[in-house]
């Protein structure tokens, strides 16, 4: 496994685990997924307080705690969506300093950790009081309640403000070889955590079925027919779509945040990730040259 170092000197595995879709109702399966990830070399696990209204944190944290004697483990979580865990509903978007400073205590308790390795703002708008949000993160960092902080966003105006006015260590954003908008946000000083690399299964062996089921109206500026054409182009290369998708993200020097719902799915993705190493820089550059560069049109200023 390769790792990337953040500005706060935290090591994050280049292939990491997104925990949102873990089968929390099946503790054995969830534990099998976490164990398999750890054995492969994954050291970063991404969750959020909003996922299953706190249950994701409360499940993942204690399960990983049992492995900390043997593995280097880092857990990232997110904040900003105020919710009612009893009613299981979101109340409002709340990036206020007071809320963040209370929410971090709740997340720490659910995770069972004395501090949070990476605390990320779970969204954000240009209308937020971003200076107040930044001040809250900086205070939590000074008090050693968190080690690093970052944001999860696709909004250029928000991302630009945090890059210029804060010490964010990470940016989580959508990014895949057919969804290239995230390239605009790449920064040598900030580690990019790329989510959606397989595009809901579109960049997998099940692409024909997924294309019909999920993308009849197209997506991301592509019509259905254009998507079909792009997939045909990618399948002409002597590699699985999964391997191409993973190699693209690795070539872009970002962290691949892979979300799974079963141990079998993770095992297959690990195999494809390992296979992706056989794709040379020249070949992935050639593949990328056949795909248009996209930009988000909204939230730019």
TrEMBL record:
InterPro entries: AKR2_Oxidoreductase (IPR053135), NAD(P)_OxRdtase_dom_sf (IPR036812), NADP_OxRdtase_dom (IPR023210). Pfam families: Aldo_ket_red (PF00248). Residues 18-289 form the NADP-dependent oxidoreductase domain. This is General stress protein 69. It comes from Phocicoccus pinnipedialis. The gene is yhdN_1.
